[in-house]
Design goal:
CATH architecture of the largest domain in chain A: 6 Propeller
Mean pLDDT of chain B: 81
Distance between the termini of chain A: 34 Å
Number of domains of chain B: 2
Mean pLDDT of chain A: 91
Shape of chain B: flat
Largest interface: A-B, 43 and 29 residues
Oligomer: heterodimer
Low-confidence stretches of chain A: 17-36
Number of helices of chain B: 5
Helix content of chain B: 25-40%
Distance between the termini of chain B: 56 Å
Strand content of chain B: 25-35%
Number of helices of chain A: 5
Largest sheet of chain A: 6 strands, mixed
CATH superfamily of the largest domain in chain A: TolB, C-terminal domain
Number of strands of chain B: 12
Strand order of the largest sheet of chain B: 2-8-7-4-5
Number of domains of chain A: 2
Shape of chain A: elongated
Helix content of chain A: 10-25%
Amino acid sequence: MKNFSKSALAVMTAILLLNSASPAQTDWIRTGTGLGVEKVRLAAANFKSSTADPRNAALLTSFNDTLETDLENAGIFDMVSKSFHPTSIPASPPEVKFLEWSGPPPNASMLAFGTLGVTAETMTVQGWLDDVKNPLSAQVLAKQYQDKATTDAARMTAHKFADEIIFRLGGGIPGIAETQIVFISSRSGHKEVWMMDYDGANQRQISKMGSISLSPRISPDNSRIAFTSVTAAGGWQLQMFSLELARTVSFPRFGGTNVSPSWSPDGSRIAFSSSQSGDPEIYVADNGGRSSKRVTTSPGPDVSPSWNPKTGSQIAFVSGRSGLPQVFTMEADGTNPQRMTDQGYAVSPAWSPNGQFLVFSWMRKYGPGAPGAQDLYIMDIVSKQWVQLTHDGGRNDFPAWSPDGRHIVFQSTRSGAEQLWTMLADGSNARQLTTSGRNTQPNWSWK
Amino acid sequence: MKHVSRFISVLAVGSALLLGACHHKPLPVPPPPTPPPPAPTASLTANPNSVPRGESTTLTWETTNATDVQIDGVGPVNPTGSRQVTPADSTTYRLVAKGSGGSQEATARVTVEAPPPAATTETTGSLTEEQQFNQSVKDIYFDYDKYDVSAAQQSSITTTAQYLAAHPGIRFSVEGHCDERGSTEYNLALGDNRANAVKGALVRAGISGDRVRTISYGKEKPFCMASTEDCWQQNRRGHFVYQK
């Protein structure tokens, strides 16, 4: 295993961002601009008012800002700066002046535009996506949305339209603008489970355990959150929060320390670490905590399982069996353990949605007296080659993948106390999502 | 990569120097001709510093160069003075003296002794069983990323086991703690190994495992908050807690 060069990084990035995307992408991008690693040049025109309602202005601001941010965040577009937009903004397809958008200065390939208008209590959004380099058959997308006339609804509608565009131009991979991130926040005075929209908006408290809660993991169907809390009588026990019932539901208790749950991709099973035998080992149980079966047997900490979301048949985990913690993989029944990292202090593996990569937190040179650089790395499972994603910016830990495999959310001390950040899976475009209290252990919803 | 590691070493050395400097208060120097505002000084004593429950003690303090003097739980006070207090429980009084030259803290601990229970043979003198326990057991300290009880800690195990063998009615828990470095989840598992290692050592020394409950706090409840090797060592421990 060795560190590889910049060109290898570029290749891996290309694989990451475009793998499995190409066939559908060539279908959609008839102008050919989306082939290879080149990003689609996209202009998102400000939507226009379609009624005379005075509430339109505030909703349009919210909608336009959210749409622009979502498309920028997607990582697959080269966005045309709004200062390059022509002065005449279309409000319907016949009004599009193709050459003004496809020629300089915008040089756009694609144009998103539309209208928003409130009538009575209903907001109606009409959105289009045109291939402006192909005037004879320009329309790629035409969508109408209706919802309540609130800024929250305007944001959600922008997320939906952004996801449609990303789906069409991003090779048929669903966008993430409607996804959620669960995490741990100390801002209430206790470490509790919190949830937010993928862009950091709409942060709200989920659990009210009043003790210490850690390691929230959302189920593949978005209906439940598994986490762990310290309880007065029973130490660390797994907890199951139902988002449908808005409360914790009963879950079996085990002896010892029970932490770090991970869902199998079909939602039927949970892997977790339990010291019910007197030593922390990985167990696999059904999603109700029954039929639990021990799958590791080595002395020392075995913790932080992460299921391969593609196959459902392997688990990555952290083990101290050989000294300092290292990342291992194994079959879900515990056979064929493979050590993936060969030095330092390696923790918090998360398996990419396509099953090809692990992202994890690593202090490559760790030991008493060693500097505390803790960075995120991505490793190709088959070759064990790795790339460093973060560089000397505080302690970076608990990376988790977005469902499209293009983004990673993680905790970092680069701005002071632990906060949550997202970045593209190649390490670029880092954005801070939280600022209040200490925020840790993010986990991205599966859809 | 080389540049980066050199940069880190420089940082590390720099911060070590800074941290080192923090431990030694600068010696008082005579004021120069145009002096900066002198730093405040403060002292706080409690006499007696140990009282039976319900009785009072006298706090006495002295400050200099301070314009704002506060004692937690008492409030704003004169720069120099004394006051009788009757704490309900053992209390650490903290005085903060603020002046234009900075601020200075002083603390004084008053231990409140509970009245001796009416009919307990376990207590000797005025100490409760819990106080006796806390004085007699010895927390076990661990090396970095290790969970085995080292030979150096064996005498603490022996002392603790002797006390526990002489007081077979006491039930207790062992909390496994870790320093702030590394992952939350890994440290919970490591702390569990530490708590169980202490339990195992006591069982080997003849103490029944039924009396012991173990729990890991990982790095969630540190004893010491600084990012120093001293502090980290304080936090890597198996901590005994009286349960009865």
